[in-house]
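User: Before I run my own analysis I want an independent prediction to cross-check against. Here's the chain; please return only the structure tokens and, at the end, one sentence I can use as a sanity check.
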Amino acid sequence: MFRKSIAGMTLPELLSTCTIVGLLIGLAAPSFNKLTESTRSKAALDDLVTFIAYARNIAVTQSTRTTLCPSTNDTDCSSDWNNPLILFSDPDNNRQRSANETLHQILDLTHSTILKASLSGKNYFQYQASGLPGSPKGNIILCPKNLDERYAQQIVINFLGRLRVSSDTNKDGYVENSSGKHLNCS
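Assistant: Structure tokens:
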């Protein structure tokens, strides 16, 4: 009679394998968290850049003034940039969406991002029908909810209404503003 040998692991082999797997997972977890936070930050930046570019596109293609601003009720502009953002046609230039003005889009970044806008004291940004800004130039800083400045991003809107995304020019892991200083999330 033939006996089949049963392949398996002994208890010491199983314990050492589990220990090695546990160590590898422990070493990979921080890198995975950094990757997740970086991806979340870049996605919010892309969403906001697209939102602002869409505002300019609508202004030009529909020959109308557009306004984008934070809002709590999808009608009135608020001063808190950590509310959802609305984009609407604003031909009467009153920075409030009237019943006859089209609401084009709502962008809600409140679940992952804190916005800090510096638009010359304004709580809105506008494009004229020509595509030029109807309000002063400025910038918007996007900070993660945990305020980790390594993942902060900045959009700069120039006097022609064009967008530029700030970058880490000195390669130290932090995005710099136009003065060469790290973006401040606090």
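Sanity check: The chain has one domain: 33-165.
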